């Protein structure tokens, strides 16, 4: 993996056109321009939920997200490597998606450089008390669901996806007690990984930024990226730093 490595996610691009989506795409484009202006090479690590909904059908030859794929292709042609880890909104990637990126991951993955191990995860399914989502995750990622879902007309499939997405949005509206509980669980998760010799544990999914330093490592929770702000991290081979664009 080429250095530096830029981590970001949770843009939740929608297929439908709107003023908000246009502004989001413009912000995304400016972000890519900013990181590729002075760097001739590097790696872009998209940490899931890049799209609010993405389902790829067999033998797909086009996409509703061509403008976004074009921007990814442009920075890849400049010399950047593009990596993608699946989120809960865009797990169902396929050959069409994969041709635009260097490598995809359907599960958590590891980056190692200079004896520093980085544990990369989208972040969903960690909370022990979110049993309904843990069950839903197993169902949505099962081969039976994917094959059955692919048989539905696209219009019906989109309605189902929008309903699930809308209902799950409530999970991002959190009070102080809930956010403290989330941080406690994420810290426990990160602590276990650090005991396994990971220097950094980085994730997204929860739509807010949080940084916790331990004696033997760091937990980095990245916030969402939208038309107003890009919360991202950069690993230069020595340190992993949090930034905003």
Distance, first to last CA = 23 Å
How much of the polypeptide forms β-strand, as a percent range? Answer: 15-25%
Strand-pairing-aware structural class: alpha/beta
User: What is the total domain count?
Assistant: 1
Q: Enumerate how many helices there are, as a single number.
A: 7
Task: Write out the CATH superfamily name.
Answer: Metallo-dependent phosphatases
The residue fraction in helices comes out at 25-40%
Overall mean pLDDT: 91
Overall geometry comes to: globular
Q: Can you count the beta strands?
A: 11
Strand order of the largest sheet: 4-3-2-1-10-11
Q: Give the uncertain stretches in residue-range form.
A: none
CATH architecture designation: 4-Layer Sandwich
Would you tell me which CATH topology applies?
Answer: Purple Acid Phosphatase, chain A, domain 2
Order of helices and strands: EHEHEHEEEHHHHEEEEE
Sheet bearing the most strands, described?
6 strands, mixed
CATH class equals: Alpha Beta
Radius of gyration: 18 Å
Key terms for this structure?
245 residues; alpha/beta; Purple Acid Phosphatase, chain A, domain 2; six-stranded mixed β-sheet; five-stranded mixed β-sheet; 11 strands; 21% strand
Task: Explain the overall architecture.
The structure is a single chain. With 245 residues, this protein is of the alpha/beta class. The chain has a single domain (5-244), classed as Purple Acid Phosphatase, chain A, domain 2 (4-Layer Sandwich), CATH 3.60.21.10. It contains seven helices and eleven strands. The protein has helices at 19-36, 66-77, 95-98, 131-140, 143-149, 154-168, 176-194, and strands at residues 5-8, 42-46, 80-85, 103-105, 109-113, 116-120, 200-203, 210-214, 217-221, 231-235, 240-244. A six-stranded mixed sheet has the order 4-3-2-1-10-11, covered by helices on one side. Strands 5-6-7-9-8 form a five-stranded mixed sheet, with helices on one face. Strand 3 (80-85), helix 3 (95-98) and strand 4 (103-105) form a beta-alpha-beta unit. Helix 1 runs parallel beside helix 2. The chain is globular, with a radius of gyration of 18 Å. The model has no long low-confidence stretch (mean pLDDT 91).
């Amino acid at each position: 993996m080429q250095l530096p490595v830029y981590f970001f996610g949770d843009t939740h691009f929608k297929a439908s056109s709107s003023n908000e989506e246009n502004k989001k795409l413009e912000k995304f484009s400016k972000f890519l321009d900013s990181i590729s202006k002075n760097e001739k090479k590097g790696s872009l690590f998209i940490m899931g939920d890049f799209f609010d909904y993405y389902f790829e059908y067999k033998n797909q030859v086009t996409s509703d997200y061509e403008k976004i794929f074009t921007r990814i292709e442009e920075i890849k042609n400049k010399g950047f490597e593009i990596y993608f880890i699946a989120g809960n909104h865009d797990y169902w990637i396929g050959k069409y998606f994969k041709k635009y990126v260097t490598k995809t991951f359907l599960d958590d993955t590891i980056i190692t450089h200079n004896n520093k191990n980085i544990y990369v995860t989208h972040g969903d399914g960690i909370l022990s008390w979110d049993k309904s989502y843990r069950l839903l995750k197993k169902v949505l990622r099962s081969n039976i669901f994917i094959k059955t879902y692919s048989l539905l007309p696209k219009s019906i499939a989109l309605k189902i996806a929008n309903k699930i997405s809308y209902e799950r949005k409530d999970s991002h509206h959190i009070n102080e007690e809930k956010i403290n509980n989330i941080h406690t669980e994420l810290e426990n998760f990160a602590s276990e990984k650090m005991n396994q010799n990971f220097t950094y544990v980085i994730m997204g999914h929860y739509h807010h930024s949080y940084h916790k330093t331990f004696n033997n490592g760091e937990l980095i929770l990245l916030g969402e990226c939208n038309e107003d702000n890009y919360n991202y991290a950069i690993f230069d081979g020595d340190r992993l730093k949090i930034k905003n664009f």
